Amino acid sequence: MKKIGKNEQLFAVPGKKHSVEDFSSEYTGGMKKEDGKTLLEDNIDALAKLQDRLYADGRYAVLVIFQAMDAAGKDGTIKHVMSGVNPQGCQVYNFKQPSTEELAHDYFWRTYKCMPERGRIGIFNRSYYEETLVAKVHPEIVLRQKLPTITSLNDINPNFWKHRYRQINDLERHLVDNGTLIIKFFLNISKEQQKRRLMRRIDDETRNWKFDMSDLRERGFWDDYMNAYSEMLTHTSTKYAPWHVIPADNKWYMRYAVGRIIVEHLSKLDIQYPKIDDEARQKLKEAKAALTND
Asked: What is the pTM of this model?
């Protein structure tokens, strides 16, 4: 597998044509596992402090999107990286197969109503990007959406996907312009490593519940998915909402890298604890005096 430069390893450069093959799934930057775990703990502590300020400031929302093949480690990464945040300021949504009600709306509807409010972190475990991934590999899904201009598979052509990428970019620009920080992660697992993890789910009784036959069926479309992910990175990694391609073969490094990137992005926000005016400060002094004499 071709490995790209260290500076680009975790970043899909906006405006550049990308292929998943250009990104390593096993890259660790020479870091040792023990160091990665220690740095993850540092990131967890830093994220907890930043989230507290984000919540108190109340002017920005943060949307974190995870996309990946099955068994790449989305659930575990969310669990570990977000383990230190206050549940009051964080919401996680897992988007699976659309319901009948969701199919009766445009494809943004089910995700847009879950967008984080200002002061909160919203995490999407899969997202509207499924409409350029699963739907691209299985275009019959688009037919079930009953779009007025789509009457057959022949109508789902390259121009259709071009418009869909543009719609997603327009949505994300709108969100960013209105105070939402978008952080997007593609967890890049190799086909060989996915096989090992699926086998582990079968062999380990404590993991049997994680295995789904659909995972095996979708694995049969691996090359189609890699092409879909490559197109997604090419057309939707923008300056205002870039994609981060995270090597996922080593879970410890993947969790460290995700935590580090979230902390780096949050650190750039102008989030401060609200300051009170002189009148409010005087009331605090009066309240303290009253409590002292109570």
From this structure: 0.93
Q: Is there a contact between 23 and 13 (Cβ–Cβ < 8 Å)?
A: no
Structure tokens at 147: 């779009």
Q: Phi first, then psi: what are they for 182, rounded to 5°?
A: -110, 125
Element (H, E) at 235: helix 222-236
Tokens representing 131?
Answer: 């409409």
- How many Cβ atoms are within 10 Å of 243's Cβ, its own excluded? 25
d(CA 215, CA 198): 8
Contact 189, 68 (CB under 8 A): yes
Q: How far apart are alpha carbons 80 and 28 in whole angstroms?
A: 18
Question: DSSP 3-state helix, strand, coil percentages of the chain (rounded to 5)?
Answer: 55, 10, 35
**184 pairs with which residues across the strands?**
65, 243
The amino acid sitting at 251 is K
C-alpha distance from residue 55 to each of 87, 118, 164, 274 (Å): 11, 8, 33, 10
3-state SS, one letter per residue, for 146-179: CCCCCCCHHHCCHHHHHHHHHHHHHHHHHHHHCC
**pLDDT tens, position by position, 215-254:** 899 999 999 999 999 999 999 999 999 999 999 999 999 9
Closest CA to 242 of 3, 15, 6: 15
Contacts of 109 (CB under 8 A, 6+ apart): 102
Angle at which helix 251-267 crosses helix 74-81, to 10 degrees, equals 50
User: In the chain, what are the domains?
Assistant: 6-292 (3.40.50.300)
Residue 209's Cβ-count burial label (10 Å; 0-12, 13-18, 19+) is exposed
In the prediction, which pLDDT does 9 show? 66
- Bridge partners, residue 86, by sequence: none
Place of tokens 């598979």: 153
CA dist 278 and 91 (Å) reads 36
Quote the tokens at residue 164.
Answer: 């869909």
